[in-house]
């Protein structure tokens, strides 16, 4: 079973469980172990959605553009928390504050994805496509263990949507490696 909407839900459940697991930890080494894996998965998951899921949603969904603008903005908020946490010693007060920022942003975002974007996509994408995209989603994650090789900087949501729309319909892949070439879109115009 590799329906992309199920794989996304599986990751969301991992996020919830790993954040919950950290509630029981105080030892910085144990916190670091859980946090490293969780932070990496949050990075790869967001990128995989931006590379594979949201472009397809834009080409098919009914409220897709607004859902995508919201989602990429949320991904930036999550990334900001992750990158802020990396600036502080694990277990310190500012580290906990940054982790909470990522957690809250992610919880709010998962609810929107699960209540809006995923239902919209299910209504407009047949099971065969969802399976094919699921295989690509999983392959993307396998190709980037620990978020290796990914540009995890913030991206401009509006520019992202414009680039994706320019490459639709039926003109992908735009890059030799099969990616949309959107991974390096830095947020423009604001810090
Ligand atoms: Fe997600
Ligand atoms: Fe997302």
User: Over all CA atoms, what is the radius of gyration?
Assistant: 16 Å
Uncertain stretches: 186-191
Number of strands: 0
Which ions, cofactors or small ligands are bound in this entry? Answer: fe (ii) ion
Question: Could you report the average pLDDT, rounded to the nearest whole number?
Answer: 90
Terminal Cα span:
41 Å
Largest sheet: none
Domain Hemerythrin-like: 4-119
Pfam families: Hemerythrin
Protein name: Hemerythrin domain-containing protein
Region (Disordered): 165-191
Map the helices and strands.
Elements: H1 4-23, H2 28-60, H3 64-85, H4 93-124, H5 127-143, H6 157-166
The chain binds fe (ii) ion (2 copies).
The site of one fe (ii) ion (FE2) has 6 residues, from helix 2, helix 3 and helix 4.
Give a quick set of tags describing it:
191 residues, 0% strand, binds fe (ii) ion, Hemerythrin-like
Give structural notes.
It is a single chain. With 191 residues, the protein is mostly helical. The chain has one domain (4-166). The protein has helices at 4-23, 28-60, 64-85, 93-124, 127-143, 157-166. Helix 3 packs antiparallel against helix 4 (93-124). It is globular and about 50 Å long. Bound molecules: fe (ii) ion (2 copies). Residues 46, 49, 71, 75, 109, 113 line the site of one fe (ii) ion (FE2). Pfam families: Hemerythrin. InterPro entries: Hemerythrin-like. Residues 165-191 are annotated as: Disordered. Residues 4-119 form the Hemerythrin-like domain. It comes from Saccharopolyspora cebuensis.
């Amino acid at each position: 079973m590799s329906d992309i909407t199920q794989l996304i839900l599986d990751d969301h459940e991992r996020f919830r469980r790993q954040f919950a697991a950290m509630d029981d930890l105080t030892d910085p080494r144990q916190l670091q172990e859980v946090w490293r894996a969780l932070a990496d998965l949050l990075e790869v998951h967001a990128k995989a959605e931006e590379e594979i899921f949201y472009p397809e949603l834009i080409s098919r969904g009914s409220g897709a553009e607004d859902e995508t603008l919201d989602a990429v903005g949320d991904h930036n908020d999550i990334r900001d928390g992750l990158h802020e946490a990396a600036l502080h010693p694990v277990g310190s007060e500012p580290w906990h504050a940054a982790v909470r920022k990522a957690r809250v942003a992610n919880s709010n975002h998962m609810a929107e994805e699960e209540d809006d974007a995923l239902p919209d996509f299910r209504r407009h994408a047949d099971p065969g496509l969802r399976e094919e995209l699921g295989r690509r989603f999983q392959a993307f994650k396998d190709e980037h263990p620990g978020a290796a090789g990914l540009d995890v900087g913030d991206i401009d949501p509006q520019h992202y949507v414009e680039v994706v729309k320019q490459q639709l319909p039926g003109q992908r892949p735009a890059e030799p490696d099969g990616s949309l070439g959107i991974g390096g879109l830095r947020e423009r115009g604001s810090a």
